[in-house]
Amino acid sequence: MPEKNRRDAISAMDLAAITGNLAIRDLAALYMRGLDRLDRDLLRSQFWDDAFLNYGIYEGGPDGFADFCIDALKTHHRNHHMLGQHLIDMSGDEAFGEVYYQAYHKLTNESGEQRDLFITGRYVDRYEKRGSVWKIAYRSELVDWVRDDPCTDDFLDGTQMIVGARKPLDPLYDRQAMTRKSEPNP
Question: FRET label pair with 132: which of 2, 26, 65, 118, CA 20 to 30 Å apart?
């Protein structure tokens, strides 16, 4: 085989690793969307039924975890989770991962003060591919730092900007609006 063809060829094993890696990255993104939009079913669907989750403040299965998260976040005014680097070690139908995250929570504390709470850390995961589907089989959340400040987003009060919301009010769920086109210039 000519050098160029050998260099450009992707083996079936390489292709499976690439597609597995992409599927696992989607799990992380959909997990975050489930949290931010308070979409319990979406959040829950990222885990196998027998998955084990250890967050320190929660330890157990995915159904209880999804309920725990929605109950904890529903009193917040808004949430925003951001993914950082995502390292995945593939090994056939099993993979191990480390996902960096930053989580913003706008909430009201016991004194009635609005607060900006930032939590950053990493998820340490084990993923399994069953059939043709990848899901989280184990997840542990490690917290690296936390910052709790007075709320500073008064800028959004009364703004004409489009502000994110929870499911189903978030514009993400209005696919019809996304088909809108501007009028051509004459």
Answer: 65
